Amino acid sequence: xxxxxxxxxxxxxxxxxxxxxxxxxxxxxxxxxxxxxxxxxxxxxxxxxxxxxxxxxxxxxxxxxxxxxxxxxxxxxxxxxxxxxxxxxxxxxxxxxxxxxxxxxxxxxxxxxxxxxxxxxxxxxxxxxxxxxxxxxxxxxxxxxxxxxxxxxxxx
Length: 156
Ligand code: ADP
Hints:
Bound molecules: adenosine-5'-diphosphate
Strand order of the largest sheet: 3-2-1-4-5
Number of helices: 5
Radius of gyration: 15 Å
Order of helices and strands: EHEHEEHEHH
Number of strands: 5
Largest sheet: 5 strands, parallel
Strand content: 15-25%
Helix content: 25-40%
């Protein structure tokens, strides 16, 4: 059975992430979304909130599961890592990570999917910026996540 892991901050999940994981779910028997807990910056959503939002968004994809992880990616069980690439900046960063991960764990392969043009400009960071300024992000994230963003910022 081919099992892959799709790691990231997902703070929050966007339509770009969703596109990668829908396509990934067709490539692998099982795809585990792994929410990174030890990101350097303070997240907007807690891991529990992110997990809940992702679980809701992927409920109709049977071979996708959600987990959280701390520490290094190479400590996870699957030996296939799925990542998305939007830009040259993504490429540079991802190339370095993939090479280093493989140096640390030679059986680990990273598989890259190019972002779909419709989603290539979407990032969690920009979505948070727009929502924080009162903008409409419903074109960039699933409806339930747009609602959560609204709630988060109106509560501040
Ligand atoms: P990280 O903090 O690890 O970069 P992200 O949640 O920002 O976590 O992204 C997780 C993965 O999803 C990365 O491989 C990233 O390049 C990819 N990704 C993020 N946004 C998009 C998008 N709009 N289209 C395709 N891939 C994306």
